[in-house]
């Protein structure tokens, strides 16, 4: 390998060539993709960062000026600061409330059928059993299996049970039979959740509990999991298995030194399920994730809370009427770092400083939330936090984890009420994107309703219709105001575009995708998410739910009058180089920055073609050299993403398959968003004056080509004003609610203060306002984070839900 290095005036452009020489047209043609375009083999090497203080003349550094708001270790407790850049009248009203002493929460006493067969939790408010994976029916007495399989049901099998490919011994019926599905198993299939575990007579095989064991009896031996990556491609006799990994031999898994027989095998299949510590055989368990960790009053099983006797609710936070409230597991040190006992659940609830809005969180059937976590298999999937093997806690950066995070914060919130009669709003928790991936299509269950994996919107729409029917028939609260006070989160790429009209038209929708207008077509380049695809109606004529399309039209994807575009979840580590988290500011020597998917190998509708066009314009016009504009992938622009953003004046905000969290990336780094998405609201754009801290241009080719001229033509004074306004709102674009996040933010602030020289920090604290608004924060305005912003907006919406 050799490199031709062209040293340019500002940045270094490296052409990476093959060993045979410069990449020629013939080889380039062989690399053409079915969709999209070939990415040039180049790298833009951005030089080392420069701290802003080193660029400021000493006479300016001697200026003394009053430092603003939160940057000097104490927040200006005024509505002027709190409501900076707010649009409309929503901000401030929440803070003017008079504190109240709440009423003790009502406690239910309705018994459930057959005591839920010893498997489920009885909800003493409704008298409804809440069943874990593997159980169903009104009393959880019915087996609801999810067997490992080699195929889905065929269209003509609409009256057939779920298809599996395992025998009574839970092993594959015939490993040589063709057919791949992700759950297919050359071992023991735990068919409650379609988890493949070592089997046969191996050392680390699964040994189930005896058949007559009572409910929840643990297996005699859990055994080691075997995920999709460990599907054997050759059986014991050497016969090729067309559904396995061709490079994996029988000996790799079941030989004397294989994964299922040797503790120190060279083959590693991973511990897979949440709570399973090394050596991954179930012998060392740690705390798995459950919402609010069952409030210390239940045992967590891969996401499902099995409540202790008398306790109930999806988070086990309530005690049956007449029973004494006990402490449970709340003294466990690792729970103290994550669990919040909902104030309303206490025998004597504390004074509510900001009493409203009051939000009732439905205990939805587990199939819509906790069962998704049981089915997810991979421990990181769908999560925003997890425990380590020593029961420490750490944050994840899963793209769609806001579903679980928002549910958990609603459960912990001081605004939660257990009395639906006094509720201002009703939150409907559903883990929709967790179902879309990784649950859907892993096995032949669950579906909503046909086994048609090619349309994820169909399943989502039917799931919501089913949930709406359950709400409206079991409780009076939906019908009371026709759902106007009900809150749903729609986190898929295209948000609520294909949400059923009966729910969308009246409910409050929290979404990441602010596309406006009633006429819309799917813009996803991922075919399974194309909600306009032609449905094979005749093929699936006997199946329920294929009429979903007519039930989702016509309505917009987002209505700024009733809905809200909220931030995606970002851990503090994602923007650790930002002055918002205490890092001394860098010189902003990059004019425009975007690093990510540029649409290579994608269908042309991806990003509405915006990213693709801009990459071609930037590459063909050598914008990196001429203007310090960088648009490319991580391979083309190596280096620290957070540092690059913190060095940029402008950052591109453009769609992906729908929403993309680029607005959050920009704002959290103090980078002025350059918004390129027509008729689409960015995060909080309906309630914040985005024009005060961003620049928006049209999507058309002429506007895109003129970006260098536009940005270089913006005066330094205008840039400085946009930056000053950005600093006044950037904390609203991240979630900092909850004990774990609050402590993490404090830890990052302390760490950033420790790793930088005191002289650099002190100089950065003293930067004059006319030089830069980006002085490093010493603390964080927790009461004005993204979750708090949503709560304040909801308070403003209370009266609107009463009249419709």
UniProtKB/TrEMBL annotation:
Residues 108-141 form the EGF-like domain. It is found in: Golgi apparatus membrane. GO terms for molecular function: glycosyltransferase activity. InterPro entries: EGF, Exostosin, Exostosin_GT47. The keyword Acyltransferase does not apply. Pfam families: EGF_Teneurin, Exostosin_GT47. PROSITE patterns: EGF_1 (PS00022), EGF_2 (PS01186), EGF_3 (PS50026). Disulfide bonds join 112-122, 131-140. It is a single-pass type II membrane protein. It comes from the Eukaryota. Keywords: Disulfide bond, EGF-like domain, Golgi apparatus, Signal. Residues 1-18 form the signal peptide. The keyword Signal applies. GO terms for cellular component: Golgi membrane. Belongs to the glycosyltransferase 47 family. This is EGF-like domain-containing protein.
